[in-house]
Amino acid sequence: MVMETLQLISGLNGEIHLWRLALMIKNIRNAVLLAVGLLLVIFHLAPTYAAAPVVTTQAPGFYRMMLGDFEITALNDGVIAYDTAELLPSATPKQIEKSLHAAGLMDPVGMSYNAYLINTGKKLVLIDTGTGGKLSNSPFFAGAGRLMSNLGAAGYQPEQVDEIYITHRGQDHIGGLTIGVNRAFPNALIRAPTQEFDIFLDPGKREAALAKSNHNEKFKEWIQFTHDLFKPYIKARQFESFSGDLELTPGIRSLATYGHTPGHTSYVVESTGQTLFILGDLVLMAAMQFADPLITSAFDGDPQAASIQRQRILQLAVKNNYWLAGSHLSFPGIGHVRPAEEGYQWIPINYMVPKKAAEK
Ligand SMILES: [Zn+2]
């Protein structure tokens, strides 16, 4: 009897242990499930962060300033990188190293392609037109052609432009005149320096220049390209050429700065005692050519004449505290120059939100 009782108890004990073990496993499993559930809830409720994609676009390329009562809008057509030694072959390697380092730059240096829109209150005048996105197979123009979209972003329509003044015959300054075979600015009068466009537009001079080049194919293409840009304006009697220094509209006059090209022309904009010189291609790279205006560019037709004009205009600008704006200076390409230990120092415009004269 005793033995039987003991066997029964030990048997019961074995069952009790198994039952406890099963209960423990069940509790652990429940605890794990609960923990996993809680973690899922926590991660579900917490915001998840993924790596943000790189964007690579910039704000629309327009910048405004008031010049007296005139509103100036700088318009960017693009930025193209140039190797300094190729762009400015007269600069020594030491000069390049020193000046780029001083400006915090490295080769190749991005050069802006800028145009300038002037609202005189009576007229809307555009100085140069960008590339028009043409010749994009050339490394000098690839990626440019944004002027029209930046004009729109700045709040203007091409139809509103009354006059266009051309600095010179560089394709990055006149390419935007047309869209296809049509006028990109249907209501604008185009005014351009005679010396600059004679060989493209005067049949006699065109033939003579072609013969002189031995009917060089590249030259022929260039003549055709330029001729086609002006053709629809000439047909619509919206083209005028001029020579030298003259007032084109109240507050804007041409200023002969021949050298970069035979008829290279700058424009002087004046309103209520403030003056802006629109330089065209008189200075291509601020980091190099303000410090040493004798440095000439590979694109200068007559490098010495271009250098003389650069020095003349910089002296005038320093003496009179004029604003300067350059077609290839870093956007918006507007600023002042000051005398420096070596040559001049470029001081870009301080970012501002323009106010009308009456609001100042
Ligand atoms: Zn240019």
Given as residue ranges, the uncertain stretches (5+ residues, pLDDT < 50) are 1-6, 8-12
Secondary-structure-based class equals alpha+beta
The CATH architecture name of the largest domain reads 4-Layer Sandwich
Series of secondary-structure elements, N-terminal to C-terminal: HEEHHEEHEHEEEHHHEEEEEHHEEE
**The CATH C-level class name of the largest domain:** Alpha Beta
What separation lies between the terminal Cα atoms?
115 Å
List the domain count as a whole number. 2
What is the CATH superfamily classification of the largest domain?
A: Ribonuclease Z/Hydroxyacylglutathione hydrolase-like
Mean pLDDT, all residues: 90
| CATH third-level topology of the largest domain | Metallo-beta-lactamase, Chain A
Please tally the β strands and state the result. 16
Major sheet strand order: 1-2-3-4-5-8-9
Q: What share of residues are in beta strands?
A: 15-25%
Largest sheet entry: 7 strands, mixed
Radius of gyration: 34 Å
Please give the share of residues in helix: 25-40%
Can you count the helices?
Answer: 10
Give an account of the 3D structure:
This protein has ten helices and 16 strands. By secondary structure, the protein is of the alpha+beta class. The chain folds into two domains: 1-48; 62-359, 4-Layer Sandwich (Metallo-beta-lactamase, Chain A). The longest helix has 44 residues, at 2-45. Mean pLDDT is 90; it is low at 1-6 and 8-12. It binds zinc ion. Zinc ion is lined by residues 170, 172-173, 281, 327-328.
